[in-house]
Amino acid sequence: MKSLRRLGAVATLLAIPGASVRMSAQEGERPVFRVKVDMVVLAFNVTDNKGRYINGLKPSDFRILEDGIVQKIATFAEGNRPAVQVLEDGTTRPLIATTPESGGAGTASAAELRSDAFIGTNVFVLFDTSNYMYRGFVYASDAIADFIRGLDRADSVAVYTFSRNLNRASPLSRDRNDVITGLRSAVAGDDAALYNALLLTLRDASKVPGRKVVIVFSNGPDNASMVAPDDVRAVAEDEGIPIYVISTADATKDVTSSAVFRRISTRTGGKTYFAKTWQKQVEAFESIREDLGNSYTITYYPAQNPNEGFRKIAVEIVSDPGKKLRVRARPGYRPRAGF
Predict the structure, then answer these.
(1) pTM value?
(2) Closest Cα to residue 186, out of 103, 125, 102?
């Protein structure tokens, strides 16, 4: 699945190495400069050896490598705080709001270097309403509603439901009442096409600038999809969209689905929770909410790299020489054509 490309004004990018600049003008008009530059969005968490979140780190505390090549950090954000631009000398300044342009993915255009694109998280909740969920349907809906109410005010949230087909119950919004109304309109369906629905959700999320995550709430089995789970996982990995999974199934009774869930979440920088009871589901949502609030988001323009295949991303904490801290992030991505 190819990511989207967009055009941005060159005025903010003249100092960026490798930017491809194009100038065009019609007779009697002022020249218009355009540039195509792709930006990698990397969200991750830092914890100590006991799993406690480490907050307060600065851009200078991190070194980002792609295939071993050190990258220049473009923007930096902690939790839901506004992102800042990282200058050549390592100092920071607030982002200047500009006119939004369409699109956004694991890579994004330079036009998205704007303050409103990096405030809060765009949360896509994918709710399984197939016949596998009949028994716990109402409790699941309540747990999701509680999660939505507890999100940071800066976050936007969308609720999608699925059985055989995907239903966009509520589009991305900061209005919690509208979103919960959409959630409550969900009805139980029939067969489960989880991976089809997840792929479509990722496609929607990839069009949104800034940080985004997908939270899958499902019983687990998929008996109607036409796409393979690892193909969907690769899309999320390349787009830079962490996937969190809350499964109501017993991990030991559906080994195949459990293994797939773990693989999808781990490879995208998310987590998997197995929560059979309503209380465990609430706890899982609380854990995800805490994870989002204690994250870091860094963007960078990839340095020249001949590798057209999978590029490994490494996040090093230079202020931790003893390597006592742990970073959870996606392991890399495949560049779009034309890198």
Answers:
(1) 0.81
(2) 125
